Amino acid sequence: MSAWRPWAGSALLLFPLLIWVVSLGAGYDVIGDVDVSRASVGPSAAHWLGCDHLGRDVLWRLVTASESFVGPSLLACAVALAIGVPAGALSGWLGGRAASLTRFALTTIASLPRFVLVLLVCAAFGNSVQLIALAAGVAYAPTLAEAIYARIQSFRHRGFVLAGQAHGLRSGRILWLHLLWVNHRRLILRHCIQLFAYFLLLETTLSYIGGLDGAGSFGVAQPDPSWGNMIAFEWREPEANLWASLAPGLATALVLLGATWTGRSLVEEQA
Amino acid sequence: MSVHLRSLRIQAGDRALVSQVSLRILPGKITVLVGASGSGKTLSARSLLGLVRGIEPGIVQADLEIQDGEKTHRPYDARDREAAFAPIRGPLLGWLPQNPRAALDPLRAVGLQISDCLKLAGRQSDPGPWLKRVNLASGVGALLPHQLSGGMAQRIGIALALARGSRFLIVDEPTTGLDPSLRAGILQELRAARDAGVGLLLITHDLRLVRKLGDHLLVMDRGCIVEDRSAQDLGAMKSPQAQALWQATARLEGR
Amino acid sequence: MFPTLSLATLLTASTADAASFRYAEDQAPGIVNPLFSTTMSEARVNELLFDGLYSDNQELATVPELVQSDELSEDGMSLTMRLRSDVPWHDGRPLKAEDVAFTIQAMKDPGTLSTEAGRVSFIERVETQGESLVVLHFTEPQARPQDKLTFKILPSHAFSGSTVTRSDSFRSRPLGTGPYKLVSYNDDNSITFQANSEGLGGQARIGEVVMREVSDKSYQAKLLLYESLEGLVRVLPRDLAVLQNNRKIELYPYQTNSWWYVGFNQARAPFDDVRVRQAMSYLVDVDALLAPVGTGEILSGPFVRSSPFYNHKVNPRSYDDARAATLLEEAGFVREGGMWSRDGEPLTMTLSAHRTLESAQEVVINLQSQLRTGGVTVEVEFLDEAEWKARIWRQRDFDLVLSQWSFDRNEDIREQLHSEGARNFGSYANPEVDALLDEARSTRDPQAKKAALRAVHALASQDSPMIFLWTLDSYSAISTRVDDVVIHPFYFFTWVRQWHMGS
Q: Based on the structure, what is the number of domains in chain B?
């Protein structure tokens, strides 16, 4: 793999975080932004990516859309970490019946396709992006737990673990510091990036589908921007500003590419 | 101040892996435990630290008595053995495992690992002096275990044990796989430790070490102690196993 | 969700039959029985299959259809009609006076639960004299009862008893006197109709009509362009430009009797305060709201502009944030940080829109943006049919609704604006309006009715029970292969008999 890819990947991954910060700081009013006199105008100095068919600035919508997935995907990661890491680590470390039960519970969740699980949660509890994030986090936790379980179990009886115990290190410190933080933080980071990318794709897909029927029954609904509903909102307009649907599509593709490159470089460094 | 193990028995199912093993470690003395591979040396040594897999009463039975000044620890008599071993591991008993590289956290700089031990011992966390003490440059502290040579790894192991400040040290096959010049260096370190008052239990299958630095000799075979005597009268060994070992050593030396 | 797939299926199914007129509906008719019709697609199919006693001519004046001649009694209390003898049912049986009596009785029968019952409430009883004479007796004097007798007539021999239910087998084998017979319901939800050789004025000139269900509206125009359809009932505004420039397609503008509005729930604070409702209407720029949806006429009251009842002296409100601010301040609101609030409560409301309302998304987003700029926070929810019925109609649980009303030629707005009206879910109540509506219903003088309804228009504009928005310009698009096309603004197929396929 070329040496530039990890760098390019990280840069692409940092891009949504950056625009998230910009968006939170700027607080641009994307809801009160309608101005039909500039409907579907192309890029200009005032509107770098032009406007959509209601005359809303595309660049600001693109930037503000980061709020609909960056925060929630961090929430999804937090949920997956909060469930997956302790479950995987403790069942790998302790073994025995408790571990079997934990793993059985997680395998049960994992046996449902993630997308179906998320849709079920939406159907049962209503459609909010935080809820989708929560569901995605829960749905992803078994994958993370299983990966950690396998590694901890194989590390459990390594010499340095015994040596650490002989030195009087407490089990907790060996498990959390040496096994998880020192030896597996890259693995965990890779899974977080994977979940981040998965959530972006999920949110974009749901918001796109929701945007198609115009009523936003899935994902993020207009007028709140999402890269998915931006595409859905524009693509049937006969004389649309091309950038209004192209830009969010490109942004999604680039961030996903960044996640792939970064994730792969983490695997290769570990191997 | 002593470690005294009596009538150790380790079972796997119906089979006894180790039975009727007794040994003593004394400050400033080196007890050597010799035996062929699979004779139960390492298992016996680990039982001193309570690190035999599954230390439930059904598997390990022992009368272990560790005297620490006025205090006497009898961890195998305690209901919660894991808790009872906690004050023993580290401050009283240290362990230098057979493959020192495997005993190091593979992704943590060795200097940091020495610092970890120093912190555990409540000492200044600068690893520099301890590296110097085992004749390593201070730059070695920044290396990861896989960047160390075998000899360096062994020295780091010793540095860790010394840094931890254990009163007694179990040293498992310290010279295996090292060339003679390195071996001499390691033995030098062990001697220095003994001279500093540390009690050592040296596990090896190499009887020559006994002659070089042993105070007391134990020979194990198939889970039992077959020979227990002072290092001065090695010639008086009676058991066939001890004699076979002795002959093997003599052949090596007579090359 | 799989547009290309459905498009491909439809394209392969299209072998152009010169004698066939194929048109698209978003949704196939739920039931083919004029007693229970609620949707426009059902109304259009009914127009193909059935005839009424009276119908509209192309100037939208009432003319006899199944009636040969009639005579209104001097006191206006009864109407005697002689039926035509030359119009048999599709099964060959003759049309009889008892069919008319049966139809009216079935509509009135409480067991039938007909959606059309209100249309015959002015008829007290029906009397038949022989095979072809029908006498209607009214509850009160009538000036032009013929205008209300345009409902479709059903064959009495296809039913037993005067109670008709939705599940009657008639729905699958409808029988009428209309210009077309129903031949088959097809697997792809399409319905095939065949010209009735013995229909009124002879056989219709187009041999076959096919109704096709194309649920994705944006593909209807494409199918028309690919000659997989001959007609579109209503063209989406965004497709107009493409169809306009195509020589094979003719656009037919027509005025619908329907208008859009944003309704207030006046049973709920702060919309019980007329100043708040007026202020809200001053905060809305209706021109800007309409621009992304299409073209149309902006209204100031509850009638379309072409209606005789529209009061042209009342002008639509135009955007005026200063007026709005004055009104809101009078109502006790203060503006802090750009947003209005009263007693610490921000002026926040939920706007409910029907999920199937076309272009509603654009209107809603636009409205949200305008009101936000004006200092009002609007949340939006889209409701499907069941939720709409339950929440808006039954529980009246809403703040604002975005919707449209459609009317037939009578433009009876009593149900919407009378304090006892069945469709007045916004709880509008003005005794003066009630009195005027009652007068408009009972008077026999057309001028008095006009004056009363124009007064209602002025009062409704003043009271602002809703923000009256617009009537959209509607277009049907029909292939140039079809000639002599004239479209009825409401029923579409009323004059289908004269349409024909050119060369």
A: 1
Of B46, B90, B106, the CB nearest to A167: B90
Q: Flag whether B149 is in a domain.
A: no
Structural tokens at position C282: 């001053």
Q: Can you state the angle between helices A114-125 and A183-212, rounded to 10 degrees?
A: 60
SS3 assignment, position A156: coil
Assign 3-class secondary structure to C25-49. Answer: ECCCCCCCCHHHCCCHHHHHHHHHH
Residue B52 lies in a domain: yes
**Domain carrying residue B20:** 2-92+199-253
- β-pair type (C54-56, C20-25): unpaired
Interatomic CA distance for residues A124 and A209, integer angstroms: 18
Q: Chain A closest CA to C210's CA: distance in Å?
A: 27
- How far apart are the C-alpha atoms of A16 and A70, rounded to whole Å? 7
Of C314, C317, C328, nearest to C281 by C-alpha is: C317
| C11 part of a folded domain | no
- A54, A213, A237: residue with CB nearest C366: A54
Residue pair C383/C395 in contact (Cβ under 8 Å)? The answer is: no
**Distances from the Cα of A172 to the Cα of A78, A161, A178, B83, C354, angstroms:** 21, 11, 9, 14, 57
Chains that touch A (3 or more CB pairs under 8 A): B, C
Which residues from A are below 8 Å from B99, CB to CB?
Answer: 159
Query: Which domain CATH number covers C109?
Result: 3.90.76.10
Smallest CA-to-CA distance from C149 within C66, C236, C31, C245 is with C66
Q: For the domain that residue B8 is a member of, what is the CATH number?
A: 3.40.50.300
pTM of the predicted model as reported, rounded to 2 decimal places:
0.76
Shared domain for C464 and C483, answered yes or no, is no
Query: Are residues A134 and A80 in contact, defined by beta-carbon separation less than 8 angstroms?
Result: no
Chain B residue numbers touching A168 (CB-CB < 8 A): 86, 89-91, 120, 164
Range of the domain at C237: 21-48+178-254+479-501
Q: What are phi and psi of B93, to 5 degrees?
A: -115, 130
- Contact status, residue C275 vs residue C288, Cβ threshold 8 Å: no
* Residue C205 dihedral angles phi and psi, to the nearest 5°: -80, -25
The C-alpha atoms of residue A30 and residue C369 are separated, in whole angstroms, by: 8
Instruction: Note whether residue C302 is domain-resident.
Output: yes
Q: Are residues C324 and C431 in the same domain?
A: yes
d(CA C455, CA C432): 9
**B158 to chain A: which residues are within 8 Å by CB?**
none
The answer for residues whose C-beta is within 8 angstroms of residue B150's C-beta and 6 or more apart is B101, B177, B178, B182
CATH code, domain with C364: 3.10.105.10
| Model ipTM over 0.90 | no
Centre a 10 Å sphere on the Cβ of residue C427 and count the other Cβ atoms it contains. 15
In a domain, B150, yes or no: no
Residue A11's SS3 state is helix
The answer as to whether C171 is a domain residue is no
The answer for residues whose C-beta is within 8 angstroms of residue C432's C-beta and 6 or more apart is C459
Which DSSP helix (H) or strand (E) runs through C67? strand C67-72
* E strand intervals along C160-257: 180-185, 191-195, 208-213, 231-232, 249-254
- Whether C435 and C132 have beta carbons less than 8 Å apart is answered as no
Q: What is the pLDDT along chain B (255 residues), one digit of tens a residue?
A: 888 888 888 887 778 888 888 888 999 889 999 888 778 888 888 888 888 765 455 678 888 888 888 888 888 888 888 888 888 888 888 888 888 888 888 889 999 999 988 888 888 888 888 888 888 888 888 999 989 888 888 888 888 888 888 889 999 888 777 778 778 888 888 888 889 888 999 998 777 777 777 888 888 888 888 888 887 777 777 778 777 777 777 776 654
**Residue C243 belongs to some domain of the structure:** yes
